[in-house]
Structures are given as C-alpha cells and as structure tokens.
Design a protein that fits this description.
The protein has about 190 residues and is mostly beta strands. The chain has one helix and eleven strands, in the order E-E-E-E-E-E-E-H-E-E-E-E. The strands form two sheets. Strands 1, 2, 4, 8, 10 and 11 form a six-stranded antiparallel beta sheet that branches. It has a five-stranded antiparallel beta sheet with strand order 3-9-5-6-7, with no helix packed on it.
Length: about 190
C-alpha cells in the first residue's frame, strides 16, 4: 500500500550519506524539483534557418532568439550560440547579446565579445577580397539574471564599415543559409 511521507528535512542516522536502494528511483515531477548547486535545472533553445544581412553600423537583430523561465532567482543562465557569419569589403563583424531588450554584452573594441575579423585583402576574380570571408561563430556567456520571470535572449550584430555587408548564418555573396542555434542552460547556485 502506497503512503505519503511529509517531512521538511532529512538527516542520516549515522554517517554522511543517504542511499537509495538498487532498483529504486527518486523522481521529481516538476522541472527544478531537485536543486543542488552546480547542477543543470533546465535547457531551452532557439533555431535560425535563414540568412540575415546588414550594411549598417547600427545594431541589427539576427533573428536568433531563445527564451527561458528560471526556476530559481539565484540561478545562472549559460548562453551558447553557434552559427556562421560572413563579411565583405574591409569590414568587422561584431555581436551583441540582448536580454529582454537590454544589451548585456557587446563586441566592441573595449569589450571583446564575439568575432573581430578583418576582410582578407586580395585582387579581383575570385580572390578573398571579391568573395568575402565566412567562418563559424561559437559564443558563450554566463548570465546572472536574478529573476524567475520569462527571459528572452536575442543575438544582434553589425558591421564596422558602413555600406559593406555583414552576414549572419550564411555568406554575403550567396543566399546559402546555415543553421544557427542558441542554447540556454539554467544552472542552480
């Protein structure tokens, strides 16, 4: 016959460990039902399957977003981004991470988060300068939002050279979209 044990604290009768017998499981029915510092509470993600371009030196959304509602206000959120970027001309591609519409970290000359890559110089006819530069993006940031409200993270980008094209999730010269992903991991503290 099943029964319910209601208790606020557990302690050992002796020693320092509490053991769950072989073949038995401790099951938490809700996300975040078990909390231990340094453990993963939950993981969410967002995807982008289209290429986004800008010739602006102002912050532009890549369209890559992900949302999470932390279970604990003390948790940290690990933000991980993978994708591709490209530039043409003599340009720099810079990235910014927004949370709820606020820029929380930028790729600026004073705060180097993201990719800073000058265009490779060369001649015409299929050279590096005429074809642009394209490579993978792998960015990560540990955030401390101090919130249990729904949070939306967004990746923005911009170029350093007005009129030159910066591209996220594909090459500037061809509409060949890639597959970008943002993963949010809540980590208990």
């Amino acid at each position: 016959m099943a029964s319910t044990l209601k208790i606020n604290n557990l302690d050992t009768a002796s020693g320092s460990t509490i053991t769950i017998p072989t073949g038995k499981q401790l099951i938490a029915t809700d996300t975040g039902g078990l909390k231990a510092p340094g453990t993963i509470v939950q993981i969410t993600n967002g995807f982008l399957k289209t290429r986004v371009q800008t010739a602006s030196t102002s912050s532009t959304s890549t369209g890559l977003t992900a949302s999470i509602t932390p279970k604990f206000s003390t948790s940290k959120v690990l933000v991980q981004v993978t994708g591709g970027w490209g530039i043409d001309e003599h340009n720099l591609c810079k990235f910014q991470l927004y949370r709820g519409g606020s820029n929380i970290i930028s790729g600026t000359h004073g705060n180097n988060w993201g990719i800073f890559q000058h265009q490779i110089t060369g001649g015409s006819g299929g050279s590096a300068a005429s074809q642009g530069f394209h490579t993978a993006v792998s960015l990560s940031y540990m955030d401390s939002p101090s919130s249990t409200s729904s949070l939306t993270y967004q990746l923005n980008f911009y170029g350093d050279n007005a009129g030159a094209t910066s591209s996220f999730n594909g090459r500037p010269q061809a509409n060949e979209p890639g597959y970008a992903q943002m993963i949010l991991t809540e980590i208990a503290q």
